[in-house]
Amino acid sequence: MNTISKIIIPLFVLFIVFYGVKKKVNVYDSFLMGAKEGLIMVFHITPTIIAMVFAINIFLDSNFLTGALSIFKPIFNLLNIPMEIVPMALLRPISGTATLAIMNDIFLNFGPDSFIGRLSSTLQGCTDTTIYVLALYFGSIKVIKTRYALPVGLFADLMGIIAAFIVTFIFFG
Amino acid sequence: MVNIIWVSLIFIAIIYSMLTGNIETINNGILTHATSGLNLVFELMPLIILWTGIMKIAENAGLLNSFSKILNPILSKLFPSLDKNNKALGYIASNIAANMLGLGSAATPFGLKAMDELQKVNEKKDTASEAMITFLVLNTAGVTLIPTTVIGLRIMYNSANPTEIIITSIIATLISSISGLTLDYLIRRKNR
To answer: Which of B16, B19, B80, B166 lies 20 to 30 Å (CA to CA) from residue B103?
Structure first.
């Protein structure tokens, strides 16, 4: 797996440069032109990234989630849902780094081949961090009115999380 | 909408910490987290500059255009509001391809560039267009075929079969994307 992903990028770069030369494009100038656009892009997304990372991290620091979830513990026990996985499912749309850290803890405590280990692997792989992506992409082009983007994105996340639970049960339960 | 989330995160964090006597942590966190945000920008910066540069070569050589032509049957169904020669389609196709292969570092620059192109044909500049929302729904569902980070971690923790979760991830991802796109489609049709 790793060797494949290691060779894709070099081949991809080689192919594009080769294709550019073949089509008689001024390859170097094109690169500089694009790179300049990229630099402006970075300039535009910097405030968004700092704003989101800041808010998400102080939220995680406050331990609010752990506190709020302890109230619902009996319900999860009743439904046979492992308690450790719940914060991961809830944080999935907000922070990829936070859920990766939770998955790491789960692997450490239960092993990657336990049911909860497989479930957390599926959860991590099945969706992206919706809120961060929305903030970043809309922030980069200064769109403020995002209309129905967030509800639809979160709906897709919810369906993905439910699917991850069910599919893991079917395959490894 | 993002505004509400941002405000809620900050309100909950600060008020909850005050109530639980944990305000010291937040106090220390406020400045360090701004720094970690900036560090993330610095991590992304070379990647974005590099990939937008490389992709400009592809764009000028007409490669991006031919790539989106191959995928046009699917893309034109997903993005009916876009002209089939729109440059955004090439970047959207590249973004999806990079995501599928687990090349997150390349996917973000392509995605940002796609939004940039979509904004050029957007009538109300402060409001999200239909095409933008469809693209983001597709993107946040994160159609990853090979979750490289997860597999890497599983190997590190001596999993007997590190790649066994690929199939469950793909099924869950597909269900997530299809539900998102269906809801998006229904809303678009209702708005018409």
So the answer is: B80
In this complex, do B38 and A46 lie within 8 Å of one another by their Cβ atoms?
A: yes
Residue A75 lies in a domain: yes
**Residue A15 lies inside a defined structural domain of this protein:** no
Picking from A26, A108, A150, the nearest residue to B1 by CB comes out as A150
- Band (pLDDT 50/70/90 cuts) for residue A6 is low
Q: Is the ipTM of this complex over 0.90?
A: no
Alpha-carbon torsion, ordered B68, B74, B77, B82, to 10 deg: -10
Within a domain: residue A57? no
Range of the domain at B12: 1-61
The tens digit of pLDDT for each residue in A20-56 reads 999 999 999 999 999 999 999 899 889 988 998 899 8
Which alpha helices (H) appear in A23-72, and where do they start and end? Answer: 27-61, 64-71
Q: Does the pTM exceed 0.80?
A: yes
Please report residues of A whose CB lies closer than 8 A to that of B87. Answer: none
Contact assignment for B140 to A30 by CB distance below 8 Å:
no
Q: What is the mean pLDDT of residues A152-163?
A: 93
Residue type, A76: F
Q: What is the tally of structural domains in chain A?
A: 1
Closest in B10, B99, B175 to A163, CB measured: B175
Domain that holds residue A155: 63-172
pLDDT for the residue numbered B80 = 92
Residue environment code for A136-170, b if the CB has 16+ CB neighbours within 10 A, otherwise e: bbbbbbebeebbbbbebbbbbbbbbbebbbebbee
Q: How confident is the model at residue B100 (pLDDT cuts 50, 70, 90)?
A: confident
Contact flag A16-B54 (C-beta cutoff 8 Å)? yes
